[in-house]
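User: What would this chain look like folded?
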Amino acid sequence: MNHTEPRTDWTREEITALFDMPFMDLLYEAQTVHRTHHPRNEVQLSTLLSIKTGGCPEDCGYCSQSVEADSGVKATKLMDVRAVLQAAAQAKDGGSGRFCMGAAWRNPKDRDMPKLVEMIQGVRGMGMETCMTLGMLSEGQAKQLADAGLDYYNHNIDTAPENYANIISTRTFEDRVETLENVRSAGINVCCGGIVGLGEERSDRIGFVHALASMPHPESVPINQLVPVKGTVLGDMLEGTPMAEIDEIEFVRTVAVARITMPASMVRLSAGRESMSESCQALCFMAGANSIFTGDKLLTAPNAGDDSDAALLAKLGIRAMQAAPHGHLEEAAE
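Assistant: Here's the prediction, encoded as structure tokens.
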């Protein structure tokens, strides 16, 4: 496999040119890059658990867990460690090699850190890759998570820097970048992507990919399709409009451009799959997506479900990646 240092000097003009390529040429280029850096016909199965739901003080326009949303999501306390580890064991039995834990916080409180450390250590002890998303982190909190052995920290930039204030007002794009820097400095892998289908223009998708590809490349890049939730700002705004769903071909283009510009990253096909056709998902794998979330739910949003995922992967001849001990993936030979 090719492990040459990836470029971080992509220009918006180059990324625009990729989006403008004939679709088949773009897919061919993306799959070529994918096979150079990753095992072919393999997808990592991940499971996402909401360890603390609702009551978040942020006003993200897409999120049902914001206190600003009238979505019916009830706020809960941080889950008991034993219950989290039980869910992780079930996920592993279902074939997941990666377990992600999400808490609806602006930032974790120091009193919560011992429980979070225990969760990380317990999941890692099962041989699974660990990821957490807890909001903004201080340097000290990032170090505590690193010392516990956390493999990845998820903190999405959500959209292009110039579109950010249209989606969220309670924090800035720079706030996001600061947490990412704290995570990197602590030695934790970065999981950072965003959402398409927010009613944005293609120029915003270009800006989104450009922002990711211009920083030290996140080791993990989740690409979500908006799941519009009634009671959220964007859910109510987009309901019944032509912008309510991004065109499938345009979504696949976004995945392909992410793969080409960030060749060594895991590109994760995340929220929104339950409304995608099998053909669209297959095209996303062709475009270089090599991770999906399994199970019936992603935090509070519906998901495709284990049985339908297994059937689709079998139909496509795609295998689940095998997790190595201590949560790091084995590099399969081509």
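The longest strand covers residues 42-52. If you want, I can go into more detail on any region.
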